[in-house]
Amino acid sequence: MRNEILTAFSDYCRDYEKSDRFYNSSRLSKLIYYVQEIILDNESLYIIIRPRIATQEAYRLLEDLTIEPVSAEELLDLRDRLVNRFHPQEGDILEVDFQPFYDYSPVIRDPKNIGKGVAFLNRYLSSKLFQDPRQWQDALFNFLRLHRYNGYQLLINERIQTQQQLSDRIKAALGYLSDRPADQPYESFRFDLQDLGFEPGWGNTASRVRDTLEILDQLIDPPDHQALESYISRIPMIFRIALISPHGWFGQEGVLGRPDTGGQVVYILDQVKSLEKQLQEDIELAGLDVLNIHPKVIVLSRLIPNSDGTLCNQRLEKIHGTLDAWILRVPFREFNPNLTQNWISRFEIWPYLETFAIDAEKELRAEFGGKPDLIVGNYSDGNLVAFLLARRLKVTQCNIAHALEKSKYLFSNLYWQDLEDKYHFSLQFTADLIAMNAANFIISSTYQEIVGTPESIGQYESYKRFTMPELYHVINGIELFSPKFNVVPPGVNENVFFPYTRPEERLLESRDRLEDLLFTLDDPVQVYGTLDDPGKRPIFSMARLDRIKNLTGLAECFGKSKELQERCNLILVAGKLRTEESTDHEEISEIEKLYRIIDEYELQGKVRWLGVRLPKGDSGEIYRIIADHQGIFVQPALFEAFGLTILESMVTGLPTFATRFGGPLEIIQDKVNGFYINPTLLDEMASIILEFVSKCDQNPSYWEEISKQAIDRVYSTYTWKIHTTRLLSLAKIYGFWNYTSQENREDILRYIESLFHLLFKPRAQALLAEHMRR
Ligand code: UDP
Ligand code: LCN
Known about the structure:
Blueprint: H1 2-15, H2 20-25, H3 27-34, E1 35-41, E2 44-49, E3 57-61, E4 67-69, H4 72-82, E5 95-97, H5 99-102, H6 117-130, H7 133-145, E6 148-149, E7 152-153, H8 163-178, H9 190-196, H10 206-220, H11 225-234, E8 240-244, H12 263-285, E9 296-303, E10 316-318, E11 325-331, H13 337-340, H14 353-368, E12 374-378, H15 379-393, E13 396-400, H16 416-423, H17 425-438, E14 441-444, H18 447-451, E15 466-468, E16 472-476, E17 485-487, H19 508-519, E18 527-528, E19 537-542, H20 551-560, H21 562-567, E20 568-573, H22 585-600, E21 607-610, H23 616-628, E22 632-635, H24 644-652, E23 656-659, H25 664-667, E24 675-677, H26 682-698, H27 701-717, H28 720-740, H29 746-772
Parallel strand pairs: 5-16, 8-9, 8-12, 9-11, 12-13, 13-14, 14-17, 19-20, 19-22, 20-21, 22-23, 23-24
Antiparallel strand pairs: 1-2, 2-3, 3-4, 6-7, 10-11, 15-16, 18-21
Helix pairs in contact: 6-11, 6-28, 8-10, 10-11, 11-28, 12-28, 14-15, 15-17, 17-29, 19-23, 20-22, 20-26, 24-27
The chain binds uridine-5'-diphosphate (UDP) and 1,5-anhydro-D-arabino-hex-1-enitol.
Uridine-5'-diphosphate binds next to helix 12 and helix 24.
């Protein structure tokens, strides 16, 4: 592995007293820097190089020092041999290859533009379309005629029959509007415009209608791609959105901190509110209130009959703070009630998803009174259901991964057979391949989620080429240069998570209660551990007790550093205190491990472990109380796809120390508005924290400096307003291009369907058979 190669090279240079120049800038050192992996196979050495982001090359170095390139197929065979899962005599293994489907669609050239798909697509397709003005004008005209809401025609009516007529009527309408006061309401001249052939959707005032018509006029002749983007973003095309999130406990109370239920729920609930608000604004601006049009957003999840005190057994739940946004819960069909009546881990739910999609389609249609205009999938299961629904309903599909499990577990594909019992990665990775290729567009929270950094490969990139020994070889799993990828990061709920410096917005009552809970309350049901000196600087962390979240690593880092223990307390908010209360194998083993570490390092008196599920308002206040105590937040995950807790702690004003593996590397700018830590190097982690604490002790304004920078970082870059404006504009633009370019996706979708039926389904059925026996 890369880390070992770098260490071996550095040891070699030291032992053989190589010069600095050799170590840092010789050709060999450069080569070593780009080597991702070395495989030793009998007499040959295989070197896998990543010379650029999203690019991989493999070479074989023979004993006589000749070098040969190695093909993708050979490399995957070699990997199978390495884990003793290679049976050439049994025939070739299935090769999955999506490349041919991307061969005739446009691709981004420069890796730095990956994740800016829509800008690229706009430029590319407009230059193609604009070459033939006649074809372009027809496409635009036909697109404008499409739009309806509940059967009511929007934008243009049958009085405009041709593209030429459209052009003339725009000029006539502009003339008509030229002497109207800018703020004259649309309603007062609606029927005059209707006579000319224009229906609602152009604007809510004379000036807005005029602006929209002017952009369109400009777009007809001569067209340019910027005008196109701003025009399409104004078209009222989206009124109903379905967000799909089947697994976990999807609810508004009592769910966070349970296994499988973390950031995704927070993300979606905030996104819904922001989406509804944005849709409302757009509808109002387009002048569509005259038709009494209102947006509706539905989060589709599974109904869990035994809902452990949550509302997850309720079919419909209104989302707080919205007018018409709901959680719609559809039960899994009752195969084995011992399972289907209860929460089912995200690693086990694959057999239920197809029938769930079939049942959900009817319920969604009933609730929306029609079909949605956009379907957004979340996580591997939600994206698979989004694909099934979008295919049946013929609606634009957007994917959000949140976290792709493949990169969280080292060699999860190579050793999938050993992990299958617990994780069923053969289903999950197949579902991922299906959904990511089927999606019309994908939004990611960071650039590195797609293609990583110069040093590490991205989450989507890990699907490019891999082997599932004895199941299939993926020769090309996803086109990373495809314009379907767009980076659109989330925000934080600014009503809940806001700077500790705003006393007027804080509730005194909850502050006192939570202060007690954090530092002093003696309640063995909720809290483990008492603090000898509650006045010490708190090191705080909050996460689910997943292995990957590595709260136990943080406890161990604290345990190993006497100096840290002298100067700080460790306070953890982590789901549960007792193994008997959990059915999740990772949670159980993390609980056991945490107790072991506290004992082994004798941390009694220095650690408090809160096994509570905080209502959202409380978690906001908890960060602020830690900030009142000039504490810090540490996020020690072995890998974090994005990390909402990092945004939450930063916006509160807490100096934040977060893992350098994953999204935090993009959120934080090291030593400017937070700090990177390497959770595998516990001593180094302790010394980074200690250095900060010492600096603060010498110069108290240092804490405030970092705190202020952290707050600024979130407000400037991570807000829901930025997110939803972008998401809606993407949905419209991809919808437009799908229509006008007449891109034929039927071939790739048929291939995907085959994979679903021939690969995914039999395995899902086998898992179901196993579930029936439980
Ligand atoms: N959270 C919480 N209580 C807990 C654990 C987590 O409220 O006991 C919330 C936390 O505030 C954050 C989310 O759950 O909003 C976790 O999101 P993140 O993206 O950090 O990680 P995930 O759990 O999705 O991997
Ligand atoms: C899942 C994760 O693991 C986190 O890193 C993200 O922040 C969260 O989803 C929301 O996207």
